[in-house]
Amino acid sequence: MCIFKVENNKIHILHNSADSNLGGSQYDNLLFDYFQKQVKAEFGFDISKMLWSRFIFYCKDIKHVLSFRESYRLYIEDFDATKDGHIDITCKHFEKMAEILLDKTQDFIYETLNKIGIEANQIFTILQTGGGCRMPMIKLLLRQTFPKAKHYSNDYPLDTVAVGAVRYASTIIKQSPESSGTNDVKDKGVSEDPKIDAVGIDLGTTRCCVAVNRTTGIETIGLENEGNRLLPSYVGYDESHEKILGKEFNEIKIDENWTFTLISYGTKVKLQLTTYEGETLKYPEEISTALLKHIKEIINQFQTKELSEVVITVPTAFSDKQKKSTYVAAILAGWKTVHLISEAVAAILAYSIQHLFPPFSSKDNSAILIFDLGGGTLDVSVFKYKTDGTAEIIGRSGDPNLGGRDFDSILVNYFTKLLQSVYKVTVPESKKYFLLSKSQEIKETLSTLIEDSFFVDDIDVTKDDVIKITRKEFEHMSVDLLNRAKEVIFKAINNSGFTADKIDKVIQVGGGSRMPMMKSLMMETFLNAEHCCVTNPDEVVAVGAAHYSFNLNLKNF
After folding, report:
1. What keywords is this UniProt entry annotated with (predicted)?
2. Cβ atoms of residues 211 and 221 within 8 Å
């Protein structure tokens, strides 16, 4: 806990205090003890010690879920396959259990205030940071303790300290005479008129992202109850609708992970789905309509008004037929005015308008390469950027079957083979989605850590072992995918008439750009270029689309 005052734009820290025995883990332990006792009382067995580490992770998730839901159900078969049953816990019950921790927190607050002789009613602003601030009981405690203060907490209190550190570091870097070839910059808020409506949607192959205009400028919004700003492109029964949208049957590459069957319907395509009502057929456009309609409802709720105009991004390689299908889906979803722009154009808009580029040299016709690795596709575009602020696309290439999911599949295949050869375990159908999800999680972890673990008992509870995997091992497995990406890059460069050493700036877009192996590939390929990558590369396209939307509406305002 830190108490400070601000005078003349300077921060003066009055007091710092901490309690190393009071934090989110204590709330996890409450749930751990509760479920352990309930399992023993209701089902007559003790949770095996070899499952304790996994069980504590469950408790962390439960704590998080109870921050936005009224209850949670824990299935016993996750810990003993021979048992069938569940244990429920409500948010109110959890808060009752946590009363002693809340009392300790309040005592700690008052002790800190007393040390510097300040009353609670003299505090005018409360900044909530840390993952524990997501819990409604903590928010309520702070509001009751400081009723006269303004309370501030974003959707990602866990990230707040890191963001502040990045901003502080960026001011130091700006003052430094030295600059490296890589510029990893954080989005800077751009002052926009909040009266002007602006909506940008990145309708991705595997995930969607939305940016809107707020009082603080263009920003992405939470699309799920948990506050996640990336919404999976699922509609109950669908995945990767964009891969099929506006295509004929013979143009589509079948994915073995799809939970539906493609049916040739004349020159068009339909999806044969299994629902609770039996088999049904849907056009891909119907799937996209349902997704866009859901997103529109979230946007209207977030902006507290009915919006009718939107900018939607599409892959640069989209055909006119595919663009028309996207347009029709948006109209059917309730949008009255729909504008389509390419993802590459949206990305360059975001960087340009938000001043995320390092300064250009005085020469005209600077070359910018956009590397966009999404969940299912890779797009590479080369732009000629002029000093008057205009940009022209002069070359592109892509691979509609190369994306983040292919790197997930590398790990899925690795774990599947290892489970079979070492542990004699065949992954059952019921666990295949879990394995895919876990592989994606490990891929993301290996972007920040050099090692991660896979628990064998997640697939077979009778096996107590851990499979370790390092970032180097993962990168070695991914060599073929990296070579495919490199081929796309050089094809785009050749199409533009430039050579790699003539590219001035490289912009990395899409979640796949977070992987260190991708950053290394770009750095090694473009030795003379300045490399730009925001903290959240998978949100850049939506932000650029919203800026485009803002400028369109500014003319009519």
Report:
1. ATP-binding, Nucleotide-binding
2. yes
